[in-house]
Amino acid sequence: FTLFFLFRTSFSDPGILPRATGDEALFNDRGADNNVDLNQSTSFRNPPRTKDVVINGETVKLKYCFTCKIFRPPRASHCSMCDNCIERFDHHCPWVGNCVGKRNYRYFYLMIVTITLLCIYVLAFSIAHIVMISQEGDNTLISAMSETPPSVIEALIAFFAVWSVLGLAGFHSYLVGTNQTTNEEIKGSWAQRHGEVVRNPYTTNSCCTNFGKILCGPSYNSLLRLREDKNQEKKDMEQVKLKIEQILAENPQHTSSWSQREGNGVGAAPIDHTDLQTQIPRTPTS
Fold first, then answer.
1. Fewer CB within a 10 Å sphere, N or C end of the chain?
2. Which residue has the higher pLDDT, 1 or 122?
3. How many Å apart are CA 242 and CA 8, to the nearest integer?
4. Span 129-152, mean pLDDT?
5. CB 32 within 8 A of CB 71
6. Which of 125, 96, 122 is CA-nearest to residue 110?
7. pLDDT: is 282 or 57 the higher one?
8. Given the DSSP bridges, would you call strands 70-71 and 58-65 parallel, antiparallel or unpaired?
9. Nearest Cα residue to 47 out of 33, 26, 28
C-alpha cells in the first residue's frame, strides 16, 4: 500500500492550472488593469492585482499570476519548483518529486499514514524477535542482539524514523480535520489578526465531515486533459473546414450550383451534397 500511494502521489497531476492562451492573457491584462500598456517589454511587472470573491460569507482575494497570466482560484498558488499554478496547493514535496495539491493530496496523506504504521510494525516485531531469542535457554538480551544483527538494525532504523513520520502524520491529520493546507497554516491565513477572528470558509466545523470530504470525496479531472481535448476538437473542426474548401475548389460545379441557388431564392431546388459528405473525414468516436 505504501508503494502504491507513493507512486500515485509522485506520478499524478496535482491539479495544474493551464496557462492562459494569448487571447486569454490579453483579456486578463485588460480586465485587471485598464491602464496596462501591452506594448511594453515583457520584463515590466505591474503592481499586484487582486479580485475579491465571497465564499461562505468570507471575502477571499484572488491573486493574479504574472507567470501563468491567470487569476488563481481560491487556495491555489504558484509553485516555484514546478513553475505551475497548483489548485488547492499544499506544498512541494522533494521526497516524491512532485507538488501536493487538490488531485493527489489524499494519496500523500495515506502514504505517510501507511509509512507510520509500517515503521511501528517493523519496530514492534523486531523488538519482539529479539526478546523471544533472549528467552531461549540461557541467552541474555545482549547475546540475543548479537545473534540477530538484522533485527537490531531494523529496530534502530524504525525507532529513529517513526518519530518524524509520526509527527508528519499527526500534523496532516490536524490539517485534514480542520480543512486547511500546509501553505495556509504556514502563512496563517485563518489565524487571528489584530484581534479580529478570521473564519476558515472551507471547513464544515466537523472533523469527521472534513475527513470524509477530503479523503472520500470525488476524484477530480485533470484540467490539462480538458484543455488538450478542447484543442483537439478545434483542430478537427479546422481540418473539416479545410477539407470542405478543398472539395469545393476541386469541384466547381458545386460552387456554381450553390451560387445559382442563392440567386434563384427560396424556390430553387435543393442540391444533393451526399457526395461531399462522403469525402469529409470523420473523427472516430470511442
1. C
2. 122
3. 42
4. 83
5. yes
6. 96
7. 57
8. antiparallel
9. 33
The Cα–Cα gap between 259 and 273 comes to 14
Q: Is 232 exposed, middle or buried (0-12, 13-18, 19+ CB in 10 A)?
A: exposed
Cell 484543442 belongs to 231
Cα–Cα distance between 133 and 146 in angstroms, integer? 10
Q: Are 68 and 76 in contact (CB under 8 A)?
A: no
Q: How far is C-alpha 205 from the chain's CA centre?
A: 25
The SS3 of residue 77 is strand
| Cβ-contact 17, 70 below 8 angstroms | yes
Mean pLDDT for the stretch of residues 273-283: 49
Report, as residue numbers or ranges, the catalytic residues: 93
Nearest CA to 162 among 120, 125, 127? 120
Say what the pLDDT of residue 244 is: 67
The answer, yes or no, to whether residue 191 has pLDDT greater than 50, is yes
Distance CA 47, CA 55 (A): 25
* DSSP helix, strand, coil percent of the chain (3-state; round to 5): 50, 10, 35
Nearest to 177 by CA among 131, 146, 154, 208: 208
Phi, psi at 58, each rounded to 5°? -110, 140
Look up cell 483537439; give the residue: 232
Grid coordinates of 145? 542482539
Closest Cα to residue 103, out of 228, 215, 220, 224? Answer: 220
166 contacts: CB under 8 Å, gap ≥ 6: 116, 119
Radius of gyration of the chain (CA): 30
Q: Which residue has the cell 441557388?
A: 261
